[in-house]
Amino acid sequence: MKTVAIEKGTSLTELYRSLGGDYPKFFKMDIQCKLGYLLVEKLLQDAPDRFVPRKDVAVLVFSRSGSLADDKAFAATLDTFPSPAHFVYTLPNTVCGEIAIRNRFMGETRSYVLDSFDPEILGELVLEAFLDEESSSVIAIWADAPSEEEWEARAWLFTAQDLMPAHHCCHHGEGGCHHGEGHHEGGCCHGEGHGEGSCCHGEGHGEGQHEGCCHHKGE
Amino acid sequence: MEELIKELKIKLIESLNLEEMTPEDIDVNAPLFGDEGLGLDSIDVLELIVLLEKDYGIRLANPAEGKAVFASIAVMADYVAKHRTK
In chain A, what is the straight-line distance between the N-terminal and C-terminal CA atoms, in Å? Predict the structure, then answer.
């Protein structure tokens, strides 16, 4: 499993340029799409056969705010001249389409709006995505942007190997390495930390049995 | 006309978020749409239609007209010069 994040305060334009900057459509995107685009660029920048059309990569995008930032920007134009450029981003699943177009993914894409970051739900849905026999890897993205200035962005790339049973889970947190007591059957997601097992943690350390992941801010 | 062409180039860059382009990068006779030239898309056409109405008082009732009007910056400037109401 590979994990990437975009730190708060990062200049998205500078990050775009540092990652190659060869996709001018980036500048037309709303904030959620920009985050999704950049996260996938970070995840796949060293991937072989990049941009070869493929059906075996599923993309799952999660957020709390959906397209709210662009909804507001579009609403602000309604009294004068409604902006088509804003209108096209007033759906939370547009980010899936932008990622699919950029990377030539033709497999499953899904968009979820959650009450908050919930690694357990995220992990379950990642597992579910693997039930599709076509999917050999799953990209899970948390890209939440209530405004242009305020956002959270992290992503995980799971392969079928991450689903191998009976992985012991090792978490590197502030206190070093913590071994979970159980086995993880699912692929899942670390918010801030590095997991050698396949499970998902927000900012804490998990223990016990996890089927398809995930702890967030828990001990 | 030179002044209008320069103004249109600037407005085009701003309204279509062509962040990495400068007015000098835009060939006045190059096609705005398609694989050649600026490579603008259908959403950009709609945005340009809004721009014409908002800034020049020109209302294109039929979006299909845009294909001819936005053939290039030179064609667009000529159309604006002839039809502007503000």
Answer: 22
